[in-house]
Amino acid sequence: MIEILLATVFAQQEEPRVPTWKQDVHEIILSNCMPCHSSGGAGAFHLLRYEDVAGRASFIVELTRNGVMPPWKVDDSGLPVHHKRGISKEEIETIQRWIDAGKPEGDGAEIAICGGGLVIPDATGHTNPDTPWIIPAESAARWHKGIRDKRTFVLPINNPNPMKVTSLKFSTTAPRAVQMVCFVFDHQGRARMFDGWDPDEPGYEMMGDIGWVPSGAHGKIGPGSGVVSLPHGFHWEVPPNIDVVAETHFRPTGKIEQLSLSVDLFEDAIEGSRAVQEIVSMIRRIVIEADDDAFVATEHLDIPIAVDVIGITPRAGAECSGMNISSTNSEGTKQLLLSYSDWDPHYGETVFFTKPFRVMKGDTITSAWNFNNSDSNPRNPFVPAQFIDLARKTGVANFVLHVAPVQVEQASDLYEWNLSMLRKRQRAVQ
Amino acid sequence: MKHLWCICVFFLTSCATKGILETHILQGEPGEVDVIVFSSTDCPIANAMAPEIERIHISVQNAGGDLFLVHVWAGRTNIDAQKHADDYGLTMEVIIDTEHELVDSFNATVTPEAVVVLYDEDGTPKVIYQGLVNNLFDSPGNRRDEATQHYVRDAVAAGIKNEAISTSYRAPTGCIIEQKQ
Q: Which comes out higher in pLDDT, residue A380 or A132?
């Protein structure tokens, strides 16, 4: 009899509670879907009220189960990173059980999810809001396929003094159409020169590379991120009157969109903060036969100066299907830094590690990019698959390593070495 | 092949919201082609195809048929649908299938999902194609720069010429239509 009673008690304890919107689901939506699915966010629809979520609950479960949402393509096998997005299996299961139970709203006060507070920037740059760029309703081929659905804009900061920039916040009038933005600080006015070629149109129809500096060298945002924020204790040295160059990748939404941009720069450098430089690992040229679904390109860099790697910005086109970068020390120990097994160029935001990774003098950085130039690559821009011969002086596939030399006085040596490597690769591959 | 049913739905025209309930019955002359596209005002996958859907509408209309855009989400009103049509340059007749009668009739599962109907010699409507509009999206989250296969466009052209269609169903990809409770 006692056994039966105990079994009944345990059975009752194991009976899972029926999830409700107010007790369970809204918290999951709040932590995983904000701030994109709210006013001014990049999400195509709001997920703020019960009706918003209940009306799309099955779609939410499918997208989260398939890893489409929240947008995050970085593999877990590399170093731990800041601001990782990911909804747990348990959370997805809770939403599914909520659906199965008839999506009960639950008891308690009315719940709606609200946005964040106001933060005042130290400097701001923007395009002219009176002359927005018109994003067409559909993707349109431009003068060469490599810059399809891209436009580069110059955002003058007009800062009278040098700045120690610790973070950059991006805003746009067309958040649902803008998929990714790659930033470069331009102190030479090069982007202004490109922009001046067609004074009647805002921005210009080229990549956002400035000289040998690839677009994204000073951060890159993607779906779900509107801020590039350096880890505590690091900053970018920015000279006076800098221009932020914003290579903007948009996805036509089916209707005409008016695009204006702005960036806010923040200075929050602590005493002893270290200036960040960019080491560029890259493949300058790829030649791939049609239907080759397993082409691999690699590069090895022997690092001449000890550096702390604080983050990495990946860059490659849609013909690339995966990439990874690792470091090998003098004892042969290999550490995977960052990996994408399902690369999508529209999701390649800058990632910063939770702890800087130290690369010692003589250690080797190895980068590998996998290309799938076949119809089995659903994002391959070359349909049907065709012979590819692509080259760019800043690289057709990159990892930009955001680093700080361990010895501050070696900063100029690191800069010169990086520049010489870029020039050497340009001469080597014609 | 499924036969179309006579269904009572709310409807409005594209340029002037009537705001009244009417009975709308799909009818066609022999050899005519109609298209039904299940959509939603805020499904990004359906919206990205809005220009293509409008192009199909024009081609169907030029051949004497109609294209009906069916909004499936219960929260939508005539005003929402009118604004959506204006924003996306859609000029076809828009139906708000509040009770999912059309959704259930055609077993529509996602937006966008297209149904191409050909009226035979005695005016009986027959579904000759259902599914993907085109291959702009391989799946949600996997989007091509531009579509390279145009399934509905091809089905309409074949229907108008009364030619056979090789594939009458292509599993659509898009925003899941939430089941009515």
A: A132
Lowest mean per-residue pLDDT among A189-203, B24-38, B122-136: B24-38
Other CB atoms within a 10 A radius of the CB of residue B122 amount to 6
Residue from B145, B146, B149 whose CB has the most chain A CBs within 10 Å, to mutate: B145
The B-side interface with A (CB below 8 A) comprises 42-44, 47-52, 73-75, 87-89, 138-146, 148, 175-176, 178-179, 181
Q: What is the pLDDT of residue B10?
A: 36
The angle formed by the CA atoms of residues A378, A373 and A390, to the nearest 5 degrees, is: 120
Domain with B163 in it: 29-176
* Residue B15 located in a structural domain: no
Q: What percent of chain B is predicted at pLDDT more than 70? A: 83
Interface contact B140-A68, CB threshold 8 A: yes
Contact: A137, B139; criterion CB under 8 Å: no
> Using CB atoms, which residue from B51, B75, B178 is nearest to A137?
B51
Chain B residues with CB under 8 Å of A96 CB are: none
Assembly ipTM: 0.86
Q: How confident is the model at residue A223 (pLDDT cuts 50, 70, 90)?
A: confident
Residue of A57, A147, A78, A99 whose CA lies nearest to A351: A78
CB contact under 8 A, B178 and A59: yes
Q: Which domains does chain A have, with CATH numbers?
A: 2-100 (no CATH), 123-266 (2.60.120), 276-428 (2.60.120.230)
| CA A131 and chain centroid, separation | 27
| CATH code at position B166 | 3.40.30.10
CA A92, CA A25: separation in Å to the nearest integer? Answer: 10
Inter-chain CB pairs, A–B, below 8 Å: 80
Interface contact B145-A378, CB threshold 8 A = no
Query: Which tens digits make up the pLDDT trace of B55-105?
Result: 999 999 999 999 999 999 766 778 889 999 999 999 999 988 888 888 988
The answer to whether residue B8 is domain-embedded is no
Quick one: CA dihedral A376, A377, A381, A387, positive or negative?
A: negative
Angle at B29 between CA B24 and CA B31, to 5 degrees: 130
Output the pLDDT for position A218. 96
Mean per-residue pLDDT of chain A: 90
Given B42, B44, B178, which is nearest A57 (Cβ)?
B178
Partner-chain contact B48 A59, CB within 8 Å: no
User: Is B92 within a domain?
Assistant: yes
Q: What is the distance between the alpha carbons of residues A281 and A298, in angstroms, rounded to a whole number?
A: 10
Closest CB from A62, A69, A253 relative to B48 = A253
Could you tell me if residue B19 is inside a domain? no
Residue B25 confidence (pLDDT) above 50 = no
Q: Given an 8 Å threshold on Cβ–Cβ distance, is B145 in contact with A55?
A: no
Give the residue from B66, B118, B75 showing the smallest Cα distance to B94: B66
Find, in chain B, the residue whose alpha carbon is nearest to that of A42: B44
Task: For chain B, say whether A35 makes contact (Cβ under 8 Å).
Answer: no
Beta strands in A103-204 (DSSP E): 123-126, 133-135, 150-156, 163-165, 167-172, 178-186
| pLDDT at residue A199, as a whole number | 85
pLDDT in tens, A35-66: 789 888 889 999 989 999 999 999 999 999 99
Count of domains forming chain B: 1
